[in-house]
Amino acid sequence: MFRSIKVQAAIAATICLAGLFYLAPSLTDNLPSFWKEHLTKEKIHLGLDLRGGTHLVLEVDTDKAVESTLERAANNLKETLMENKVRFRSLERKKDKISIELYEGVSAAVLDNILREHYPDLEVASSETASGKETASLRFKVKRTTELKKLAVEQSLETIRNRVDQFGVSEPEIIPEGIDRIIVQLPGIKDTARAKNLIGKTAMLEFKIVDDEHSLDEALKGNVPEGDTLIYGSGGSGGEADRRASVPYLVKNKALLTGDSLESAQVKIGDRFGDSYIAIKFNSQGATDFERITSENVKKRLAIVLDGKVHSAPVIQERIAGGQASITGSFTMDEAKDLAIVLRAGALPAPVNILEERTVGPSLGQDSIDKGIWSVFIGAMLVIVFMAIYYNLSGLVADAALLLNIIILLGTLAAFRATLTIPGIAGIVLTIGMAVDANVLIFERIREELRGGKTVRAAVEAGYSRAFATVLDSHVTTLIAALFLFQFGTGPIKGFAVTLSIGIVVSLFTAFYATRIVFDFFVLNKKIKRLSI
Predict the structure, then answer these.
(1) Of 236, 274, 366, 510, which is the most exposed, with the fewest CB atoms less than 10 Å away?
(2) Does domain 205-330 fall into CATH 3.30.2130.10?
(3) Residue 92 and residue 74 in contact, taking contact as beta carbons nearer than 8 Å
(4) What residue ranges in 395-455 does DSSP mark as E strands?
(5) Residues 48-100: pLDDT tens digits?
(6) How far is residue 22's CA from residue 17's CA, in Å, rounded to a whole number?
(7) Domain boundaries, the chain
(8) Number of H helices, E strands in the chain
(9) For residues 122 and 394, what is the distance between their CA atoms, to the nearest angstrom?
(10) Considering the domain 2-50+362-525, what is its CATH architecture?
(11) Dihedrals phi, psi of 322, to nearest 5 degrees
(12) How many other CB atoms are found less than 10 A from the CB of residue 41?
């Protein structure tokens, strides 16, 4: 029996030491060099409400993602129809549908065959025959639309995460919420405007040829040639006045190259005036395409369009090999750095709208930490004093189990890289109460058995066995509620649920395993005749 107690004590000690091991980096920075080099350095992650920073709730415009994909499908469908010599009067995307008008004599069955063979995700929403002309409205199938919306959120999440990582934010939290929302928490970030611009910029980079053959003045009057579009951008040589300038460009609709072909984007300083610009390098396929585009369009202007705005439109003087180009403009250094980040991280598949924005100052965060620590300390001390006075030496055993509970709980938070928030501190305080409540139930059962005339050994055995069902029932129901809070709650509620869930499991361990070892040692090994309870 004594050997069994020693084994149980060794297990409990191992768990306690493991908690201290993971908790050590959070307690002190003066760890030995070998520890810093080879062992865990993870501290307890503090939530935004404790560290300070920026909290954003973003909504992904998934409808725009569907429309963007549908636009590409419409352009591809045009080329397919022309390749198959199917004559049509017009074909254009209108919101979430493609409107197509066929020439007289062209059967709708021909269009159905092409859709079935080349575009299985498209279906005919409606069709009409009038005066021998076929008109049809196409749309994505419901399954494909759902897939595109889900993919848009997933891609947006990954793109935003890449941008934030390159921005240099330590321990950011970027998580999905609901169907189309993303929570972004940036600890330590004070420049909210810059963070929002970095995260929310669509960063759709396109290279288009400027149409200098048609009249820009006529286009401004509304006579835009077919296949062209008007895009505005900055003109001139830079400066503050240039930043406010809005210069129109008549450009071809078709993008000859997009940001998908980029390999890298770096901030550079100009040799002459010290202006910042972004040097871009294409991947192997992009370099080949860029060389072909420049060789076919010598003496034409190539508009560099970012998020629907022309940043520059240089004249192609000769074929450009090597796959390198630059984006110039009146950038500040921070603007150039942020633009390079979003270009490297890739374009968002859909615009994101900022629904909620909160900023927590570091001083408020430190004040919250101080108050939270004091609340845990005062609550724990009151409980410790009460247990020691009311239950004598047995109360001290419960107090030791309580300290063990807190050590294991905090160590588990550090080990699993969970985030501690203000509601999480409230969960720790509640855990302290539940841990003590379990011991109170056990001790009161033992007291009843002793008053009934049972021996110390029999009273301890009965006290633990009879209290187990009651304590387990209350802990399991609370754990289920905590898990539901974690699954369906938002950030602060999840913080509360995390510490409460861990605390409940640890509380069961300390109440029925750790304290039982102490009682068994004195009752079975020391064979005490009287219990101080």
Answers:
(1) 274
(2) no
(3) yes
(4) 419-420
(5) 777 778 888 999 999 988 988 898 888 889 889 888 888 888 888 888 899 99
(6) 9
(7) 2-50+362-525, 63-145, 205-330
(8) 16, 19
(9) 74
(10) Up-down Bundle (1.20)
(11) 100, -15
(12) 12
